[in-house]
Amino acid sequence: MKKISLIIITLLSLQAYSQENWFSGSFNSNAQYYLDDNKTGDFNEDDRFRSNNYLKLDARFNHFTFGIQVEGYAPQAILNFSPTFDKKIGLGNYYANYRTEKLDITAGHFYEQFGNGLILRSWEDKELGINNALIGGRIKYSPFNYLQLTALYGKQRKGFDISDGEILGFDTELNLSDLFKLENSSINVGFSAVSRIQDIENAAPNFNKNTNAFSGRLNFSKGNIYTYIEYIIKDEDALVEFETVKTDKLATGNALVFNTGYSKKGFGIDATFRRLENMNFFSDREQEGNLYNEQVVNYIPSLTKQHDYSLTNIYVYQSQPKLSYNPIGKSGEIGTQFDIYYNIKKGSSLGGKYGTKLAFNYSTWYGLDAEYNIVDRTYSSEFLNFGNKYFTDTNLEVRKKWSKQWASIFTFTNLFYNKRYVEETVGKVNATILVAESTYKISPKKSIRFEAQHLWTKDDKKNWWGGTLEYNLSPKISFFATDVYNYGNELKKIHYYNFGGSFTKNTTRIALNYGRQRGGLLCVGGICRIVPESTGVGLTVSTSF
Amino acid sequence: MKNYILSLFILLYCLSSYSQSSLPIYKLKSLDGTMVSTENLAAKDEVLVISLWATWCVPCINELDAIQENYADWQEETSFKLVAISIDNARTSSRVKPLVNGKEWDYEILLDTNQDFKRAVNANTVPHVLIVKNNKILYSHSGYTPGSEIDLYEKVKEFAQ
User: Fold this and answer.
1) A323 Cβ partners below 8 Å, 6+ apart?
2) Which of A327, A454, B59, B65 is the most exposed place for a label (fewest CB within 10 A)?
3) What is the pLDDT of residue A544?
4) Whether complex ipTM tops 0.90
5) Do B147 and A475 touch (CB under 8 A)?
């Protein structure tokens, strides 16, 4: 700990004396003080005060970059973080990188994504507590502008520890239109191979401890039309049930993504089809389905609208790539998503003086149509048939500027959420949500924003309403008050209120809030975790330099 | 907790020293699949505004919509350009192209799907804007509230001189 503090102090004092930055970095701190609350329950754990802190420093010398990320969870990590983040102060990431126009070599921790991440993605999200950076080495070589080659080897981070499994990866991307000097269209192709190597004790004879996955992808665009297709296959791997690896029960996996769209000024349409079959892929087999999304090799987000309001974030779909027989038979998902963007022109009767912007989204997801043999732990699935319905979501968003002072956004959402299959509990939910928000500019830099939301449902916890009031005193200072209330719930009516304010100057932001956190799914970027309710005071500080 | 607060303030104080740093050089994909180096985004002495945004981020869209409304007028007055770098990951990156066209934005768009560039410029959140000239970062700002675009343009004018 002392060593790390010393390095930081040295670097910071050097920085203060240099004219030009040869190093840069960022600092984030998220601290919570948990309070007892007779509505959400008393805080019965150790350490009411908790904080997560990250200091990232990168130093650049010509072609070299060196970096560290110091992480501190003091006295321990805030609620709902993986227990693997267990140091008061420790070195989270460190790396050295050498980069020229053609060559890029990294030793230490690195983040990488092949194609769309369906086969491999290592990434970080501090809010969600995800950091599955690979530690090892990576070489990227681009002999020509149209060709990119990547080879890597590493083990994934799990908190301050590293995974048991090893990852070996290779990726190539070729821009054919650049190569053949095609002027009217653009074609990119890519190929990836990823191997997960993990020893396993007492495995069945002939069990292959290496699991390989291969993927091919193609991007094509011409004029206003574009298309993307990717197919991936994953070798036979052991079935994992309740953290037990069954090396005599094997299954292969595969996935297909097809995306196409058309867009021109003022109009855009995008459609995606995806089918996943047994695509869970973990560095460590035993970690399959862990609560904290640790040691995940690939990235399979749910392809639905990413909502921004509190009530539209209650019933959020989570992609279903896994194979399971118990408690219910599931082997993957199949479905589609559509988006349409349209700008109604200024001056037309519907467009008004400033025009009207429309965004429509529809998505529908089903289980695979499959027969399960529970005794033998085998199954057979149909390729293009749809099984049980998991989720459907229809959204319309209208953005309208009324005058120089007034602007509004209206959002309509209708959804179906199959709790039995998505959460593996019971029940189905049909819900309709309306959100209206308006911003009024008091002066060019001072504004006030109102938001009203309502969720109607006869299922699950019944109706909710919500409201937000935000006052932006200047681009630097703003205050907010928000409340969501589950008034339809007979058993538990709670106001989940929050109050706070923030101060922003350049890249420094300090925010303070007090309130109740609604329990349930916390979703950021399409990855969700179940969190318990809590009440407390929070302080967030972030800056970059 | 005392220790925590104390170290926080010492750290913030140390970091508040301000000097310019050079723009990290990354190759990012454009919407038609070609690789574009961040080194070649602007001409010599031209002011470049880089906006890191995402399709799911309402304040980001508000900011880019607000700039778009004034973009033509401002460009007439001051020579600068804006490059909007989307940090959308695989979940939402296919929405970038139809959204940009649907909104009739006139910005050059690049994709940073695994957020390598965002990490390299040490942006904590989006929206995050950088003002760059001759590959030096002269100013950066996080977050958007209505009216921030006016402050941003004031800065652009200042650096354009």
Assistant:
1) A239, A251, A253, A277, A278, A280, A330, A331, A332, A379
2) A327
3) 87
4) no
5) yes
